[in-house]
């Protein structure tokens, strides 16, 4: 059995152990790489220190003499901690989605979490996340209403409902001093505030109806359904068909 090549090669001449290939880069490259890693690690640690009197001086020195703020912005490593304490949410808000059918009957789509989930719940599904997002980002509401119109039409022979109504629900979280006395509170026992936010008519909004190809694909008659309102295309092919420039 032959010995390993490395051992057979060098055991007779230990001095040749230094003749093998070196690590990547030369001495200067190693120094520069090590300095960069040390600087990067130090800046990350200092930047994430609390901005409070015990560590404020360290952060100020790093920003003034070591370019900490510019380095973090250049690499896109800045963090915002405003969503955490000491300013937590003081209310729980939900957006209830109502559907008014062609007969004028109002239906709860059950998209909000308030009555759909038990408390406490361990999993926050995607529908609940989107529903909560609609409260703050009003620009998404029309597209979401069109989605509700189309979903209803798929289940009702291709005919969309008359309206989609958004109603905001919210409860005020009791202050800590009150919760300490009662040893907690039940979310469902808080006073529920309600306010109608917006109403969308399915016949008038873009993509609030099913297109003919979807009606055909799902075998829906679509009798009494309004015509499909498409979003004007902005592609170069659409501009060319309209006779526009390139």
Structure summarized in a few sentences:
It is built from nine helices and four strands; from the N terminus they run H-H-H-H-E-E-H-H-E-H-E-H-H.
Describe this structure in words.
The chain is of the alpha+beta class and 246 residues long. It folds into two domains: 25-80, no CATH class; 91-217, no CATH class. It is 38% helix and 13% strand. The chain contains nine helices and four strands. It has helices at 5-10, 27-47, 53-65, 68-75, 126-136, 141-155, 176-182, 212-217, 236-241, and strands at 91-100, 106-108, 163-172, 193-201. It has a four-stranded antiparallel β-sheet with strand order 2-1-3-4. A hairpin with a 5-residue loop joins strand 1 (91-100) and strand 2 (106-108). The chain is flat and about 80 Å long. The mean pLDDT is 85.
Walk me through the topology.
Elements: H1 5-10, H2 27-47, H3 53-65, H4 68-75, E1 91-100, E2 106-108, H5 126-136, H6 141-155, E3 163-172, H7 176-182, E4 193-201, H8 212-217, H9 236-241
Antiparallel strand pairs: 1-2, 1-3, 3-4
**Unreliable spans:** none
Shape: flat
Helix-strand sequence = HHHHEEHHEHEHH
Total beta-strand segments: 4
- Rg over alpha carbons: 32 Å
Q: Mean of residue pLDDT?
A: 85
Looking across the biggest beta sheet, what order are the strands in?
2-1-3-4
**Measured distance between first and last alpha carbons:** 75 Å
Class per helix and strand makeup: alpha+beta
Count the domains: 2
Helix proportion range? 25-40%
């Amino acid at each position: 059995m032959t010995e390993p090549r490395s051992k057979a090669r060098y055991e007779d001449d230990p001095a040749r152990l230094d003749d093998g290939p070196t690590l990547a880069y030369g001495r200067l490259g190693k120094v520069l790489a090590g300095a960069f890693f040390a600087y990067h690690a130090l800046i990350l640690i200092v930047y994430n220190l609390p901005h409070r009197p015990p560590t404020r001086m360290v952060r100020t020195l790093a920003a003034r003499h070591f370019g900490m703020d510019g380095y973090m912005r250049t690499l896109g490593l800045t963090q915002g901690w405003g969503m955490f304490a000491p300013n937590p949410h003081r209310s729980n808000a939900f957006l209830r989605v109502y559907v008014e059918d062609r007969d004028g009957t109002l239906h709860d789509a059950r998209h909000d979490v308030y009555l759909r989930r038990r408390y406490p719940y361990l999993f926050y599904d995607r529908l609940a996340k989107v529903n909560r997002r609609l409260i703050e980002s009003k620009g998404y509401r029309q597209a979401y209403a069109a989605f509700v119109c189309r979903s209803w039409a798929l289940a009702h022979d291709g005919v969309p409902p008359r309206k989609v109504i958004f109603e905001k629900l919210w409860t005020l979280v009791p202050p800590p001093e009150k919760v300490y006395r009662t040893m907690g509170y039940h979310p469902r026992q808080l006073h529920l505030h309600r306010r109608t936010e917006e109403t969308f008519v399915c016949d008038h909004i873009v993509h609030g109806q099913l297109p003919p190809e979807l009606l055909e694909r799902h075998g829906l008659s679509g009798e009494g359904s309004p015509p499909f309102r498409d979003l004007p295309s902005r592609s170069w092919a659409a501009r060319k068909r309209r006779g526009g420039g390139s």
